[in-house]
Specification:
single chain, 3 helices, mainly alpha, elongated, about 80 residues, two-stranded antiparallel sheet
């Protein structure tokens, strides 16, 4: 499962690429293939659907969607249930 950026530099802040699993980098926009944010593992299909609508959302906003704290997109569990 992808947790780090591929490049040596973050596209948002220009600093060294981040490890989203082990660092709290909430203000940067992660590449869409990053699926692990701290203790949260995001389903690849959910992440792709979210990315299609909101490609410039930060890690904090992505985790907020995952947890259901954003009214514009359902939480991961609800979304996965709706896909069945």
């Amino acid at each position: 499962m992808k947790t780090q950026t591929n490049s040596n530099k973050c596209q948002t802040c220009g600093k060294k690429g981040h490890d989203y699993e082990n660092e709290e980098i909430m203000g940067c926009v992660p590449p869409k293939d990053v699926l692990k944010f701290g203790k949260y593992s995001i389903d690849k299909s959910y992440r792709n659907a979210l990315y299609e609508l909101y490609p410039f959302y930060t890690a904090e906003e992505i985790v907020g969607f995952y947890l259901g704290h954003n009214p514009y997109f359902v939480d991961q569990n609800t979304w996965l249930d709706e896909q069945k």
